[in-house]
Amino acid sequence: MSTAAAEWDVWSTRARLVVTDPAQLEPARRLVVQHLADVDAACSRFRACSELRAVEQAHGQPVVVTALLARLVAAALEAAERTDGDVDPTVGSAMDALGYDRDITHVGTDDHPVAVLVHSVGWRRVLLDGSVLTLPRGSHLDLGATAKAVAADRGAALVAAETGCGVLLSLGGDIATAGPAPGGGWQVLVQDIPTDPACQVAVAAGGAVATSSTVRRSWSHGRRTVHHIVDPRTGLPAPTRWRSVTVAAATCLEANTVSTACVVRGDAALRWLRELGLPARLVDDRLRVHTVNGWPAETGLAA
């Protein structure tokens, strides 16, 4: 089965689209580009005109939202519930306080000490009833992680449904597949940055993989290096026990939810992963690789 691929920049990361029918590559790319634009318009926290920002400016009043934004918020709340709040969409204000208040490509170095810590208001105060969304007054949501995963899942499904071919869609570390896979499965290189340990795995048709990293989106703030995965309980970046966590699951949303929560949970992540039964690969702060639940073993790695 022959494949064709396209790559482009989006959301300060790299999108990669692979289809099993080369003739469908351009129509598939148009579908994905439009889908990602719709997601951005719905929930970007960096766009003053996004639908989410408009809801935040409603000062705690209920707002009827589009089906797309409702789906994205529901996914974020699902992730929060599954992880006991380790993945909490209400950390937006904490992210702003850490200097991540614009696209990562425009986040500069801040040498001033951190003066104020901002805690999340708590995901349970976000109310979604069908298409009616009510946010706590003054809250600022960050749907970045879960929205990107949902976008990958939905984008791959759209392409498969419209073209009838197999598709892999990668948005940074979030990879979703749909339709038939090439012989031997979708071959995926798992590596956070070029100097980190690498491995290649085969993803079966319909499978998904997500990687959460404390290295890729990092910057200087308060005279120290910080990253974008915030512990909602402290309002600060999670300790860097893990440089990266990669999880395989049935959907990209599930994989991303678990990989992000593992960064927040630190040492407790390995036991939790074993309980969940999801294959995973974790690279620790000393560049040692840990694999669980049948993730393919790598030479010289810690089990």
What does this structure look like?
- By secondary structure, the chain is of the alpha+beta class.
- It has helices at residues 25-43, 51-56, 67-82, 92-97, 144-163, 252-265, 269-276, and strands at residues 4-10, 13-19, 63-64, 127-129, 132-134, 167-171, 174-178, 186-190, 199-203, 208-213, 218-221, 224-227, 230-231, 236-237, 242-249, 280-284, 289-292.
- The protein has one domain: T-fold (Roll).
- It has 7 helices and 17 strands.
- An 8-stranded antiparallel β-sheet has the order 1-2-6-7-10-15-16-17. It has a 3-stranded antiparallel β-sheet with strand order 3-5-4, covered by helices on one side. The protein has a two-stranded antiparallel sheet with strand order 8-9.
- The longest helix is centred in the middle third of the chain and has 20 residues, at 144-163.
Short summary:
The protein is an alpha+beta fold and 303 residues long.
Task: Describe the protein's topology.
Elements: E1 4-10, E2 13-19, H1 25-43, H2 51-56, E3 63-64, H3 67-82, H4 92-97, E4 127-129, E5 132-134, H5 144-163, E6 167-171, E7 174-178, E8 186-190, E9 199-203, E10 208-213, E11 218-221, E12 224-227, E13 230-231, E14 236-237, E15 242-249, H6 252-265, H7 269-276, E16 280-284, E17 289-292
Antiparallel strand pairs: 1-2, 2-6, 3-5, 4-5, 6-7, 7-10, 8-9, 10-15, 11-12, 13-14, 15-16, 16-17
Helix pairs in contact: 1-5, 3-6, 5-6, 6-7
